[in-house]
Design goal:
Layout (H helix, E strand, L loop, with lengths): L2 H12 L4 E3 L4 E3 L7 E4 L8 H8 L3 H13 L4 E4 L8 H15 L4 E4 L3 H10 L5 E5 L6 H13 L2 E5 L1 E2 L2 E2 L3 H18 L7 E4 L15 H15 L4 E5 L9 H18 L3 E4 L12 H11 L8 H12 L13 H11 L5 H9 L4 H21 L5 H18 L5 H5 L3 E6 L7 H11 L4 E4 L6 H10 L3 E7 L3 H16 L6 E4 L5 H8 L7 E3 L3 H13 L37 E6 L2 H4 L5 H8 L9 H25 L6 E12 L2 E6 L2 E6 L23 E9 L3 H11 L3 H29 L7 E3 L12 H8 L7 E2 L5 E2 L3 E7 L10
Parallel strand pairs: 3-4, 3-12, 4-5, 5-6, 6-7, 7-10, 10-11, 11-12, 13-14, 13-15, 15-16, 16-17
Antiparallel strand pairs: 1-2, 8-9, 18-19, 19-20, 19-22, 20-21, 22-26, 23-26, 24-25
Helix pairs in contact: 3-4, 4-5, 5-6, 7-8, 8-9, 9-10, 10-11, 12-13, 12-14, 12-15, 14-15, 17-21, 25-26
Family: Belongs to the vitamin-B12 dependent methionine synthase family.
EC number: 2.1.1.13
Keywords: Amino-acid biosynthesis, Cobalamin, Cobalt, Metal-binding, Methionine biosynthesis, Methyltransferase, Repeat, S-adenosyl-L-methionine, Transferase, Zinc
C-alpha cells in the first residue's frame, strides 16, 4: 500500500460511523435501544462450564457457549482464555479463528498482554474490541496496546485504574479517564469513538461503609464521561454491583442498576444475556428496595441494605395469580392491552347491563388504549401489539355502535389527515389513522401527496373538522410543511395543525413552522403524541410547540473541515451507459437485515424485555410471521425485481457533478455542510483538470404488485398484516439496492469500498435530482416513473448514486 493509500485508509477510519463488525455483519456501538450487550460467559474465571471445556480442549464446546449467548441476544462476545498452566496465546488464536468464522456477533478480545492481543487481532475478522488498557503501571503498556488498536482498526476498553489503584469516586474515575483519553487520542491517534471507558463499579452489598455510595459514584462518572469526553463510549461489568447477595436478589439489583446506568448514558454492558430482566417484570416493592440500595436511601432503622436482604430472606418469588372474580371492566381493559378478542361479545353484553354504550367507550376502552399508548411511549409495548390492541378496540366499538344513536356517534373529534405533496410514503400516516380512529376520533384520510390547496378545500367542505394532521417522511416534506403554514393562514384557518414525520424536529416546527400560522402548530413524534394533542385541544389547553433558543448547543457542532484525498487513479468503468438486469428473489432476499425488519419496520423492539423473553418472542411470533409473509410473496408472485444500472463519465465543477454522455449534459448540484466537517458529495470526485471521474447510478424495484397488495390489506382493516407486508416490501427493496450496489462494486473491482446515496436523504436532500438520474438510466425500461411530486412509482423502488472514493461516508448537510 502506498503512502497516499495509507493516508486515505486512515482518514476513512477516522470518519466511519461507530460500529463493530464480525465476518458477517456490522453492529452499532450505540444501540438504538441501549445497551450493547456483551456476553461474559466465555471466560474460565467466571464460568465453570467454559473452564472445564477449555481445559478439556473441547473448542467446539467453547463455541457452543458463545453461540448460546448470541442466540440469547448478545451483540458482542467477550473472549478470555487466561488460565494457569495453559498457553494463553495458542488458546486465544485457536478460539478467535473458530469464533470468527462461526459467530455473527463481533468479538471482544479480553487480555492485557500486547503479544496475545496482536496475535488475536491478526486472526480476527471484522472490527473487534480489545479489553482492556489501564494505567496501573503507567503509560507505557497501554501506549503499546493503543498502537495495536490503531494499526488493526479496533476499539479498546479503558479501565479507570492508575498507579494509585482502582478509582473509587467520581472525580478520581474521571481524572483517570481524562488521562487515558489524552494518551489514546492525543498521543496515539485513536478517535474518541474508538474508546469505551469502564468507570468500574463495586459491590454495595458488603455492608462496607466506604462502598455505600459506590453505585452513585459510578453513575455520576458515566454522566461526566459522556458529557466531558464527547464521542467516547461507556461500558460496565455489571455483576460486581451485587456481589455477595443470593442469586435471586442479585438478578433484581443488577436489572435495576442497569436501568439506572443506561439512563445515565451507559452504552454497553458485560453480562450474561440470560440474566437480563426487563424492569416492568420486577415486583414494584423489590424495584423500590433496589432503588433505595442503589441511591443509599430509605430502609428505616435497618438501612437500605438490610431492608433489601430481609425482603429476599422472608419472601418467595411467585408468579402472580389471576383473581377468581375479576370485574368485567377490568377484563375488557386487559383484553385491549393483550390484543385479545376472547369472549368480546359476551363481555360487551355484560357491560351494557350496567353502562351506557358511550360510557363503556369513554370510561373503559379509551383509558385502556391510553395505557397502551403509555406503554408504547415507555418502550414497554411493541408496535405490532399496539395494532392488535387497536383491532380489539375497533371490534368493541363495532359491537357498541348498534346501541348508540347518531348524535353520540357524531360527537367524536374529527381529524383531517394527509401525507403532504411530494411524498408517497403512507405507512406513518396509516398508523396514525389506525391509532386515532380506534381512540374515538373520526378520521378523514386524504391519502398521499396531497397539495395544500386540496387540504384547504377539504376543511371548507367539512366544517366539522377539529384538527389538521400532516405527515411526511422526507426532508423535502418538512420544507413543504413549512411553506404550507402561511398558505393556511392566508386561507383564514386557525385550526390546530399537527406535524409528524421522520425529517421533522421539535426545533424546526417551533422556529420555522409555528410562527407563520395563527393557530397552534404542534410537533408530534408519533401517533400517541398526536392523540394527546387532540385531547389537549378538546380540553382547551393545546399550545404550539416551543423551543428554548438559549439551550446549550451540542459539543459536536464545532466546525472541523474534513480533508478528502484526491485519488491519483480511479477504477475503470466496465461499460458506459445503462443496462437492465432481471433478478431472482433468491439472489437478494437473503440480504434482508432481519433485525432492521423486526425492530425498525415491524416494531418488535426488545425494549425492557430480557434477552430470553425477546428470543421467545422472535421464535414464537416474529419468525412464523416472517415465514407467512415470505410464503405470501411466493404464492402471489408479489416480487418482480429488476435493476437498471450504469456508469457515466463525470467531473466535479464547483458545487456540482457534470455528466456529459452521448452529446447531452446532466448537472447534479450537491450542497455542502454549513458546519461540522464541511463535506459535500462533490468532494469525492475529481475535476476535469485532475483527469475526470466516473459516476455510478442505479434504479431498483420489486415491482407494482407489492403496493397493490398492501393497499388491499389496509382497505380491509387488516392492520397487522398490512404492517408486516409493507415493512417487508421496504426491506426487500433495500436488500435489492444492496445487491445492485454489490454488483457494481465488483464490476469496478473495489469490493467494500465507497458508499451509495439516495436523493431526498441527508447528504443530498434535493428530490429534483431524481429527474436527471431517471433520465440518464431510462427508468421507464423497468417500469419506474416519477410522479408530479418527484416520488418513484412503484413505491417499493430505490435510486442511488454510487461513489467509489474510499473516504466516502454518510453525513448530513
Amino acid at each position: 500500500m502506498s503512502k497516499k493509500d495509507k493516508t486515505v485508509s486512515n482518514a476513512l477510519n477516522r470518519h466511519t460511523t461507530p460500529k463493530l463488525a464480525s465476518l458477517y455483519q456490522a453492529v452499532d456501538l450505540r444501540q438504538q435501544i441501549a445497551p450493547l450487550i456483551i456476553g461474559e460467559r466465555c471466560n474460565p474465571t467466571g464460568s465453570k462450564r467454559f473452564r472445564e471445556l477449555l481445559l478439556a480442549e473441547d473448542l467446539e464446546g467453547c463455541l457452543e457457549i458463545a453461540l448460546e449467548q448470541e442466540r440469547k441476544g448478545a451483540h458482542l462476545i467477550d473472549l478470555n482464555v487466561a488460565w494457569a498452566g495453559r498457553d494463553e496465546r495458542t488458546d486465544m488464536v485457536h478460539l478467535v479463528q473458530l469464533f470468527g468464522r462461526s459467530l455473527r456477533a463481533p468479538l471482544m478480545i479480553d487480555s492485557t498482554n500486547p503479544e496475545i492481543i496482536e496475535a488475536a487481532l491478526k486472526n480476527c475478522p471484522g472490527r473487534p474490541v480489545v479489553n482492556s488498557i489501564n494505567l496501573e503501571d503507567g503509560d507505557s503498556a497501554p501506549g503499546v496496546i493503543c498502537n495495536l488498536v490503531r494499526k488493526y482498526g479496533a476499539c479498546v476498553t479503558a479501565l479507570t485504574i492508575d498507579e494509585q489503584g482502582m478509582a473509587m469516586d467520581c472525580d478520581r474515575k474521571f481524572e483517570v479517564a481524562r488521562r487515558m483519553y489524552d494518551l489514546a487520542v492525543n498521543e496515539h491517534g485513536l478517535a474518541p469513538e474508538d474508546l469505551l471507558f469502564d468507570p468500574l463499579t463495586f459491590t454495595i452489598a458488603s455492608g462496607d461503609e466506604k462502598l455505600k455510595t459506590a453505585a452513585l459514584e459510578t453513575l455520576a462518572a458515566i454522566r461526566r464521561i459522556k458529557t466531558e469526553l464527547p464521542g467516547c463510549h461507556t461500558v460496565l461489568g455489571l455483576s460486581n454491583i451485587s456481589f455477595g447477595l443470593p442469586p435471586a436478589a442479585r438478578r433484581i439489583l443488577n436489572a435495576v442498576f442497569l436501568h439506572e446506568a443506561v439512563a445515565a448514558g451507559l452504552d454497553a454492558v458485560i453480562i450474561d444475556p440470560d440474566n437480563c430482566i426487563p424492569l416492568d417484570r420486577i415486583n414494584p416493592v423489590q424495584r423500590e428496595l433496589a432503588m433505595g440500595l442503589i441511591h443509599n436511601r430509605g430502609g428505616g432503622n435497618d438501612g437500605p441494605l438490610m431492608a433489601f436482604i430481609n425482603h429476599f430472606s422472608t419472601h418467595i418469588e411467585e408468579e402472580s395469580k389471576e383473581e377468581e372474580r375479576t370485574p368485567p371492566e377490568q377484563i375488557l381493559q386487559e383484553r385491549v392491552r393483550q390484543g385479545s378478542k376472547q369472549d368480546l361479545p359476551d363481555l360487551i353484553e355484560m357491560l351494557l347491563e350496567s353502562y351506557a354504550p358511550l360510557a363503556i367507550i369513554n370510561q373503559i376502552l379509551v383509558p385502556a388504549m391510553r395505557k397502551v399508548g403509555e406503554l408504547f411511549g415507555d418502550g414497554e409495548m411493541l408496535l405490532p401489539f399496539v395494532l392488535q390492541s387497536a383491532e380489539v378496540m375497533r371490534a368493541s366499538v363495532d359491537l357498541l355502535e348498534p346501541h348508540m344513536d347518531k348524535k353520540q356517534l357524531s360527537d367524536a373529534p374529527t381529524v383531517l389527515l394527509a401525507t403532504v405533496q411530494g411524498d408517497v410514503h403512507d405507512i406513518g400516516k396509516n398508523l396514525v389513522n389506525i391509532i386515532l380512529s380506534n381512540n374515538g376520533c373520526r378520521v378523514i384520510d386524504l391519502g398521499i401527496k396531497v397539495p395544500i390547496e386540496t387540504i384547504i378545500q377539504s376543511v371548507r367542505e367539512h366544517p366539522e373538522i377539529d384538527v389538521i394532521c400532516l405527515s411526511g417522511l422526507l426532508v423535502k416534506s418538512a420544507m413543504i410543511m413549512q411553506e404550507s403554514m402561511p398558505l393556511l393562514k392566508s386561507a383564514g384557518l386557525k385550526l390546530p395543525v399537527l406535524l409528524g414525520g421522520a425529517a421533522l424536529t421539535r426545533r424546526f416546527v417551533a422556529e420555522d413552522c409555528a410562527p407563520a400560522y395563527d393557530g397552534p402548530v404542534v410537533y408530534c413524534k408519533d401517533a400517541f403524541t398526536g392523540l394527546a394533542a387532540i385531547r389537549e385541544h378538546e380540553a382547551g389547553t393545546l399550545r404550539s410547540t416551543t423551543w428554548d433558543r438559549n439551550a446549550p448547543e451540542s459539543t459536536h457542532s464545532k466546525t472541523t473541515t474534513e480533508v478528502v484525498a484526491t485519488l491519483e487513479e480511479i477504477p475503470s468503468a466496465p461499460f458506459l451507459g445503462a443496462r437492465t438486469l432481471a433478478v431472482n428473489p433468491e439472489d437478494f432476499l437473503p440480504l434482508i437485515h432481519n433485525q432492521t425488519l423486526f425492530r425498525g419496520r415491524w416494531g418488535y423492539k426488545q425494549g425492557r424485555m430480557s434477552n430470553k423473553q425477546y428470543q421467545e418472542l422472535l421464535q414464537q411470533t416474529v419468525l412464523p410471521e416472517l415465514e407467512q409473509v415470505q410464503e405470501t410473496c411466493r404464492t402471489q408472485q408479489l416480487i418482480q425485481a429488476q435493476i437498471r444500472s450504469g456508469w457515466f463519465p463525470c467531473v466535479r465543477e464547483d458545487q456540482a457533478l457534470l455528466v456529459d454522455y452521448e452529446g447531452t449534459q446532466w448537472r447534479f448540484p450537491l450542497p455542502r455542510q454549513n458546519g461540522r466537517s464541511r463535506l459535500s458529495l462533490v468532494d469525492y470526485f475529481r475535476t476535469r483538470e485532475q483527469g475526470g471521474d466516473i459516476l455510478g447510478l442505479f434504479l431498483v424495484t420489486v415491482g407494482p404488485e407489492f403496493a397493490r397488495s398492501c393497499h388491499e390489506l389496509y382497505k380491509a382493516n387488516k392492520y397487522h398484516e398490512y404492517l408486516l407486508l409493507h415493512g417487508y416490501g421496504v426491506e426487500a427493496a433495500e436488500a435489492l439496492a444492496q445487491y445492485a450496489h454489490r454488483l457494481m462494486r465488483k464490476e469496478i473491482g473495489i469490493e467494500e469500498q465507497g458508499q451509495r446515496y439516495s436523493f431526498g436523504y441527508s447528504a443530498c436532500p434535493d428530490l429534483e435530482l431524481q429527474k436527471p438520474l431517471i433520465s440518464l438510466l431510462q427508468g421507464d425500461k423497468i417500469g419506474i416513473q416519477l410522479s408530479d411530486n418527484l416520488e418513484m412509482i412503484p413505491e417499493q423502488s430505490v435510486s442511488a448514486l454510487v461513489v467509489h472514493h474510499p473516504q466516502a461516508r454518510y453525513f448530513a448537510v
